[in-house]
Amino acid sequence: MLIAADYPFLDVLWTMIIFFCWVAWIFLLIRIFGDIFRRHDTSGLAKAAWIVFVIVLPFLGVLIYLIANGREMAKRDVDHAQATRAEFDSYVKSVAASEGPAGEIEKAKRLLDSGAISQQEFEGIKARALA
What we know:
By secondary structure, this protein is mainly alpha-helical. Helix content is about 85%, strand content about 0%.
């Protein structure tokens, strides 16, 4: 029994190409809509106009948006990635400084120096942190 007798290889290939282009088009629309909504340098009216333009005339709207804002779109992506990286690095540094045995011992030492805990309590905290 031949399943694909009426659907030759080149038709299968053409279908795969069309499906790939459709997925790429959806991805491109998502990226453009995301960029339009993420922008802070345009008003709500301008954002609405771009959305309507991209929906009403999709190919022309996407092409014009990429021509007009492609460079700034890439710059916004880089700035967002750098800001996210800096925020993550700051978070890791703050957690690394306050966590772990050294951080626990440092906190306990400050409490000992301020008189909030005794020497025996400090030694107990230190032993638990090192264990």
